[in-house]
Amino acid sequence: MRTIAAPLLITPLFFIVITTAHAAFPDIPLAHKDIEAIEYLQDHDIMRGSPRADGTMFFNPDAKLNRAELVTILVRAIGLDIDVSEKDCFWDVHEDVWYHSPVCSAEFMGIISGYPDGSFQPEKTVSKAEALKIIANGLGLEGDVDMYASFGEGSEWYAPYLTLAREWNWFDAARSSMALDAPLTRADVAQLLYRAVITAQDRMATGGLNPFSNDLAASYANTDIGMYGTHEADLLEALYANGRLYRNDRLGFSMLLPKTVPTYTCRASKTYKIVDIVAMENGDDVYIAPAWYETEDYLGYNPDGSGMYGDCMRHETQANADEYYARAINTTIAKSDADISDFIKKHFGEDCGPFTRGPASQNGIEEIRVTNVALPGIEEPSGLDELACGINWGYILKYNPATRRLLHMSLGQDGFFYLPEEDGTSYSRTIDWTMVRTLRMY
Questions:
Q1: What is the strand order of the sheet 440-441 is part of?
Q2: Number of independent structural domains in the chain
Q3: Per residue in 399-427, pLDDT tens?
Q4: Domain range spanning residue 250?
Q5: Could you tell me if 129 and 60 lie in one domain?
Q6: Using an 8 Å Cβ cutoff, are 130 and 179 in contact?
Q7: Distance CA 91, CA 84 (A)
């Protein structure tokens, strides 16, 4: 960010210097209303210019921005750099186009979705509403979007994103009045992304919900950008490096799994073994787990009454309900909301419900969320959705209305999947939520 000191003397010559001086780009004068945003993004290598014949880079502030360009800029902002050279995402995003890597990376991270026909329409001009959703998802603000969705300010898909942008001051006065379907220029997106990045950094650093201001921007002016989602992007990159695709055509889903993980051991002092991942079917249940694990089997009380004792025993993972050490995935046909409600009550308890269906990050796939828990003896909504039923925290519920298939995946506290360190003797970085990002229903 560049600060211009006020002149002590204003002479005709000095006046000419001021009006002809430029920022990082020749077509962005120092008096441009978005200069702080443009220079911030340029300094962090997020938004770049276009070269002219003589090699000079121009920003082109009034040029309309398309969907591929916005995603590319956003991917730079969050530091997402993974190898998707052999991954397909949208039929109209071919491997030989310049935006294939950022668009497919963002799709696999669940940041963007396409249209019902499976296309992305990369050259379509991005609208204000679309930009809000893409940027909020890219910065890892899904939890805050959900919070604003509970305000009930409208049932339209863009309502919570608009509420977040308004509360966090993502738009200046002129852009606040723009229609939601209005196409955005490069300068529009620069201002929006600048404010979003600043507030998202502050959200991560302080846990607060502070709106954008010049003072807030000044406090992060010289700070390296660290975003929500960056950690997850690192995990996804590691998952690609150590991953394989599990696809179940009969049940209509696939997900990217690690090839190996450290085994669970009965004593922390033992050296962890790196074991293969197995995926086993049991009816419509699929268990995904290490091929074997160790537990301490208690053999009874010592004769002297000193307590129980046991030995570390190796167990082969079984497909008949080793849920404590495995990820259990279940899919079922649900032809109506009543079927979904019955499934929730059966698996999570009679007191769990009702629920809402809403668009997920994937094309055509809906998220199922329990919106209220009717606890015995409490007539008013308890607000204990996650605590009482765990669906919104410990479980994933997705619904494909095209195939009428409901998918449920447990993410309990036990049996987390971890990636091993390079030395193979320890582990870190749980990848549960990253695997959820790669979950696909058909």
A1: 243-248, 253-258, 440-441
A2: 2
A3: 988 889 999 887 754 556 777 776 666 66
A4: 243-441
A5: yes
A6: no
A7: 15
